[in-house]
């Protein structure tokens, strides 16, 4: 049940809905990715904030739903553990798949980075908090939000290792493979045009 809920949550095309209100489809302009970054490039930071929040919330809600129905097993610091690990990871994976291939938007979706981040916030709150701190530090030092975001996302599994066993962190690596797949698909489709 959590997987179905996760997929349906992920399928809500936040960027497409917001952009339509501004008279365009993000799948036809810019980098053609229906996500926060493309909407930000088209409309600016302020107008893109609902996309940032909505895409992140997809992962948070999917993970929380799975955590709730699996008994809410967490460690003292709030990281998912025990019987909740597999259902929560599967729900986040489903939300990411829904974002990447949304049933409500013709299966043409985004790269799932923010949905992953939202799920990670529930999977390992202290690791996520450290990743946000890294994002801010790198973004300020490099004067680039994109650089900070990359370092934070790729550094998340390392930070997560401070709080949970490697077997759990392997699940995070598997989720990141979906992001890699989406970037690969985007690169291939760009080459064909």
TrEMBL record:
Flavoprotein keyword on record: no
Membrane topology: Multi-pass membrane protein
EC number: 2.3.1.275
UniProt subcellular location: Cell membrane
Gene Ontology biological process terms, A to Z: phospholipid biosynthetic process
Main location group: membrane
Enzyme class of the recorded protein, top EC level: transferase
Associated pathway: Lipid metabolism; phospholipid metabolism
Reaction(s) catalysed (UniProt annotation): an acyl phosphate + sn-glycerol 3-phosphate = a 1-acyl-sn-glycero-3-phosphate + phosphate
Keywords tagged on the record: Acyltransferase, Cell membrane, Lipid biosynthesis, Lipid metabolism, Membrane, Phospholipid biosynthesis, Phospholipid metabolism, Transferase, Transmembrane, Transmembrane helix
Transmembrane feature ranges: 88-107, 114-142, 162-183
One GO location term (cellular component): plasma membrane
Pfam family, one: G3P_acyltransf
A GO molecular function held by the record: acyl-phosphate glycerol-3-phosphate acyltransferase activity
Family classification: Belongs to the PlsY family.
Record's function text: Catalyzes the transfer of an acyl group from acyl-phosphate (acyl-PO(4)) to glycerol-3-phosphate (G3P) to form lysophosphatidic acid (LPA). This enzyme utilizes acyl-phosphate as fatty acyl donor, but not acyl-CoA or acyl-ACP.
Subunit structure as annotated in this protein's UniProt entry: Probably interacts with PlsX.
Protein name (record): Glycerol-3-phosphate acyltransferase
Species assigned in the record: Nonomuraea wenchangensis
